[in-house]
Amino acid sequence: MIFIGVKKIPRNQISSEDSAVGRGLRSHDPLSPAERSERMRLIRRADTKPEMIVRRLVHALGFRYRLHSRSLPGHPDLVFTSRKKVIFVHGCFWHQHINCRQYRMPRSRLEFWLPKLEGNRRRDVASQRKLSDLGWNALIIWECQLKKRTVLTKRIKKFLETDR
């Protein structure tokens, strides 16, 4: 369930009339639709800042990897072929990191965002299941976890050095 105003509406029953725009309310977005579109267009799929931080950490630990293997489900960010391990670096917003301060559901255009973000989450789960079925181990690193570098470094090292 999500809350829109004071009405409690199940996610699958949200229509454009329930969104802030559909009810004639102004969007909370300070940018115009054209400006927002331009900003969203600049968001990259690969080589993001969080991904680059993780890549530098892994390289400094002495591990070598391949990038974005198209032959594996979910196109993992870092692939360690000889170890059969992969690392995904997820943005808290795009992959719906629940109970995270960096994740907040948009307040406008819910008819667009709800299916999009839910689809991302479902695709992540399916990719991880397929990788596991193929005998690969996956580590998910969330954008918010990059703040504690020493903890993250230990976690990555433990993941890559263990057999399973």
Q: TL;DR of this structure?
A:
The protein has helices at residues 33-41, 49-60, 110-133, 149-161, and strands at 2-4, 7-9, 66-67, 78-80, 85-90, 137-142.
Give the uncertain stretches in residue-range form: 3-9, 14-25
Helical content (DSSP H or I, runs of 4+): 25-40%
Could you describe the largest sheet, including whether it forms a barrel?
A: 4 strands, mixed
Number of helices: 4
Strand order, main sheet: write it out: 3-4-5-6
Content-based structural category: alpha+beta
Strand elements, count = 6
Give the distance, in angstroms, between the N- and C-terminal Cα atoms. 38 Å
* Mean pLDDT over the full residue set: 82
Oligomer: single chain
Compressed to H and E, one letter per element, the order equals EEHHEEEHEH
Strand content: 5-15%
Radius of gyration: 19 Å
Coarse shape: globular
Explain the overall architecture:
With 164 residues, the chain is α+β, with helices and mostly antiparallel strands. The chain has helices at 33-41, 49-60, 110-133, 149-161, and strands spanning 2-4, 7-9, 66-67, 78-80, 85-90, 137-142. The chain has four helices and six strands; from the N terminus they run E-E-H-H-E-E-E-H-E-H. The strands form two sheets. It has a four-stranded mixed beta sheet, sandwiched between helices. The chain has a two-stranded antiparallel sheet with strand order 1-2. Strand 5, helix 3 (110-133) and strand 6 form a beta-alpha-beta unit. The chain is globular and about 50 Å long. The chain starts with a strand and ends with a helix.
